[in-house]
Amino acid sequence: IVTHLPSSPLHNETQTLWVLRGVVGLEIHAQIHATSKLFACSRVAFCSPPNSSVAFLDASLPGTLPVLNRRCVEAAVITGLALNCTINRKSLFDRKHYFYADMPAGYQITQQRLPIAVNGSLIYSYFGGRKRNQVLSRCVRIKQIQLEQDSGKSLHDDQRSQTLIDLNRAGVGLMELVMEADMSCGDEAAAAVRELQLILQTLGTCQGNMSEGQLRVDANVSVHCPGEPLGVRTEVKNINSARYVARAIDYEIQRQKKVLENGGIIVNETRAFDSKSGTTIPMRDKEGLQDYRFMPEPNLPPLFVYEDEASVPAGVNPTQVVMIDRLKAELPELPGVRRARMVDQYKILPEHSFTLVNEDGLTEYFERVVRNTKAEPRKVIGWVMKELLGNLNQQSLKLAQSPVSPEALADLLNVLESGHISSSAAKVVFQEMWKAPEKAVEQLVKELDLGLVSDREKLLKICQKVVDTHPEQVSE
Amino acid sequence: MFPCCFIRRSFLSSVVNVRSGASGLGATAPGSKVTAGRRLFTSQSLHRAAPLRPTQPRCRLSELPANGAWSTGRRAAGCRWSSNRSSSNADFSSKIPQFPTWEPVAESQLPPPTKVSLDLVDKLERLALVDFGNQEGVNCLEKAIRFADQLHVVNTDGVEPMDSVLEDRPLYLREDTVREGDCAEELLRLSKHIVEEYFVAPPGNIPLPTREERSAMLKHADF
């Protein structure tokens, strides 16, 4: 039970009331959407034959040196700008040492001392309130964004007691986003992750597909009484999809609360989330606390990015220049801005705008319908939310698979606006359009004989007919 | 014929290098004496134990390695190359001092000696996979730390730490194009064990055996 009372816990002899609150901080690794890797010219590919896109540097063969990919630097700067970060004009690369079979070099090149972007914020919205239909706005601080290398993939073969190593992923550029522990429950974390996913996809710097490992989330979870120092935290790994984020974190918060309420203590450990059981399990940690022995990367001088044209020294090759001003000007419309614009421009509710931006391509669909119809946007949104999304969800279809195109829906709404059919009839027509997308709206209306009759004579005849066939009711 | 003769006409500055190269090829050249001298110096330094705080200058003038190129060009008899240089080119001011400026460092100027505990040895062996072997190895490390402690005498106020000598060079940014890869066969050939185009590793990190286990292993090993 999470209470939001800021009061101090009540301790007395007769009753101990623990007002424990969860504290959640996320570490997110986003795979940079680029053609080649961070320091080598091998391809970034998903689902290639094993070890087929591995450069000599990725296999850490002697005689190789890292050469930084400009696209990765730009991606990190663009992401930093979108998250309101301060971009460090100078950033440094370091080596983080640890031994594992999928990291042949024995160290990972990262940015520990001076990362490329710091002190940003992510504003996210999530459905909260009593009925979960209120759009609440929250902010989580971003401590830093750093560039680092990905490791290879290990496939564990427990039967033969061996691990198979595929280095295709080794050396791919990652952006590590470290967030401050500003969140308190799984729902908030899931909403933050979803918002980050949308932002990264809009920017094009990361495709954000969690199932393909393009976005990996590790959660640092602890509980404490508000006002008291933070409790011991555990790290939760192996969260493989957006919907598991909330479940894993909520489970861990509950587990820690139970342990403390039963008088136990929390151990600083790494736990893996098991999606089948919905629980977290401690990972084998024989090595104790890791000492990574950070050391400056001697093969890479400091990375400089420039503010604007004026700050670039003379004689520097333009291909060597990453300009913050230029990248800022090229930023696309971010989800938060788009949501506000939809509400402003079309006078729709924030909840609807939230759904529009949340679903892939739905905003474009909505805007196309609005462009092609006389109907008010507020009417259109109703049809999109209820009829269109309802059908899609029922049949588990994606928007791209919708049999009804935006133009067809616009046609239907035009017919409705002109008064040829009633709104209940329109709903019937919509379902028929869904089943037979090749038929035009007018054709369907005729076939189903749903046209409203407005000819006075005809109406009189029909009424007369009804009166004639039911004399008993008339005389009553 | 000697190719250097032709080159001398067009590239005066490099004639010296070419000739020392020629001497390396075994042609009779005045440089051979110098080369031998250089080799002599190298073997000498290997056998001499490096003193921590030498009471006499470490590098005496007579033992300075005579740079083959320079002395060949100037036909130095002994190796008094510094005086030679000043006579041949009066405008040249070397940053290398004419006489040794070595000063012994007093024990009192240094921080207290670092003792490497057994726990630290175990930790280092686990983190860096080095084998200290025995107490002599640990002593060697402690001596090396003591030698490096001399750096504490240097005043570094207001000086930024240096990461590498290349840190003032611009970091080269390359284009995002694919130019490597597709060499799975070549890479897999490097490994003794492979399974269907994958490298094979043990199921997890094998923990380093403890000190006792290791001595037991060594006892039973056949060498």
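qc> The CA atoms of residues 124 and 130 of chain B lie 7 Å apart.
qc> done
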